[in-house]
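Hello support,

Our group uses your service weekly, and this is the first time we've seen a run hang past the timeout. The protein is Putative response regulator. I'm not sure whether the cause is the sequence or the server load. Input pasted verbatim:
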Amino acid sequence: MKIPETTADLQQTLGKEMSSKRALLIDRYPNARTSLRMMLSAMGVGLIDNAGTSADVFRQLRAHRFDIILSDYLLEDERDSQQLLEELRAQQLLPRSTVFIVITSERAYHNVVSVAELAPDDYLVKPFTAHELNVRLARALHRKRFFAQLYEHLDNGAYVEALGTCERLIRQDSGFRFDALRFKGEILNTLGSHAEAQRVYQQVLAQRAVPWARMGLAMALRGQQQMSEAEAFGQSLIDDFPEFIAAYDFLAEVQEEVGKLPEAQEVLQRAAMISPNNSARQRMVGDVAARNQDLQAAERAYGKVLQRRRNSSLRDIDDYTNLSRVMLDRGHTTAARLVTEELRRDWRGNQQGEFAALVMESLCANKEGEPAKAKRAVEKALILHEALKDEGRSAAVSEKLALDLAHACLVTGDEKNAREIVRRIAAENHENRIMIAQVQSIYAKTGKAADGQALLAQVGREIVELNNRGVLAARRGDVEGSVKLLMEAAERVPNLQFLVNATKAIFTLLERKGWDPVLARRGIRFLQLAQAREMRNPKVVSARELYQRVARKYGVAMVPFNASRTLRGKGSFP
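Update from on-call engineer: The timeout came from a worker crash unrelated to the input. Re-ran successfully.
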C-alpha cells in the first residue's frame, strides 16, 4: 500500500470510507465544537458526537468506538488533554486504531513537550484552516488503516502474531517501512529477543540516525545485561536529542539498576523540568529521591503528583500516603496530618481510603508522642484490613501502604502482625531490591534492624525450597507432580516467578495431554495475576504466548489481554 503523495490522493483513497467514520469532538465551548463539526462534515465524516467535559468523554467512549477524536488542550476544571490521554490509555478506552489529535493555542515550550511526549497522532496549533486539518487527519487515518491488523494484535497482547504482521508489512512497497521496523524492534525487545532487536535497530541506524532507533538499541543492550553500554547509549542520546524525554527515563532506570541512585534522581529531575506535567515521572522522582534520603525533593515531587491528579480518574491513595510519609520523615508532622485529613475527606465512603487514613493517623500520633492514640488507630486499621481481605479486596491495598501498616504495628508494639504482613510482602517481592530495602528501612526506623534481616533471610530460604520442589519434580520427569507443586507455590506465594512458573507448567501439560477447562482456568488466573504485577516482563509475555498457542491448538476461545496500556510511553511504538 503506497502512501498517496497529495491531499487529493489521500481524499480519493479514503473518501468512500469517511461516511462510516465516527468522530468525537472535545471542547468546553459549543461554538468551537460547531466549527470543528463543519470541517469534518465537509470531509464527509458520517457520525460526529460532542463532549464538553471529561465526564462526557468517558461516558461516550464506554458506549461507542470512535475512529477520530479531536480534543482541545484545555478542558474543564484546569484539566488538560494530556491528563485525558493518560487516563484513557490507563483505562484502556483508547484503541490504537483511533486517531487522537490535540488542538491548542498553547505555545509554551513545556506544554508542547509534555503533550508530544504522550504521542498523540498529531498536534494542531490554533488558528488552523480546514485544509490543514484535512491534510493531517487524512494522513493519520491512512496510517491507521495500513497498520490496522498490527494494532489489533498489539491491543490483544498477541506479540508473535504482531511480529508476523510486521514482517509482512516491511516487505510491502509503502511509505511506512521504517515505522514497521520500529514496531518490529519494539516487539522483539518485549519478547525478550534482544539480540534480534539489536540487529533491527542497527539496520535502521545504518540508514537513518533517528533517536528512537538509538533508544531501542540501548534497550536491547540492557536486555542483554550490557549495562555500561546501555548507560552510555542513554547518555549520548540525551546529549544529542535533549527533547527526547523517554531517554531520560531509560537512563535513570539503568542507573538505578546499577546502584547509581543520585545520578538517576538528577536525570529524572532534568526530565521533569522539561516536561513538568507528567505525573507518573514526578512520582518516579519522588520515589528515587526518597530512597536517596533527599526528602525535600521527594516532598516537592509527591506534592506535584497529588496536585496534578487530584481531579483525575488516575488519582491514587498512594499519592496522599507517599506525601504524608515523607513529611513525617522530615519531621513535618502537622503537614502530614493535614494531608491525611485531606485523604479522608477526598476518599470519604471508600474503605481503602479510610484504611489508609487510619494507618497514617497512627504514624502521625506516634510522632506527636501520643502512643495510646497511635495504638487505637492501628487497631482500627487492622480490623479494616481484615475486612478488605474477607471481601477479596486486599490486593487493592498497595504494598507501600501495607508496609506502612507494618511500620505502625512495630511502633505500637504489635510485632506479631507486623511480622505477618512483612513475611507476605517479602515473599511476593523477594527479587525486588527496592521493596526489600523498604522492609529493611521500617525495621531500622524502629530500632529492630537485626530482626528485619533475620526475617528476610528466613523468607528467602523458604522461597528457594518452594521453588526447588517443583523444579526437581520436573527434572525427574514428573510433569503432573511438578504442576501440582508449582500451583501450590503460586497459591502460597503469588510472586512473579511462581506465577509464571505455574502458568507455563499448566499449559505445557495441557499441550501434551489435552485441554482441561478447570486446569486452564487456574493457569489463566495465574497469568492474569502475573500481568497485574508486570505485564511487559519478557517472562510474562512468554507465558502468555504459550497460553495463546495452546488455546489455538485446541480451538479454544482466548481471553483477550489488552496491551495498549503497557506499550505506550517509554520508547513506545509509534
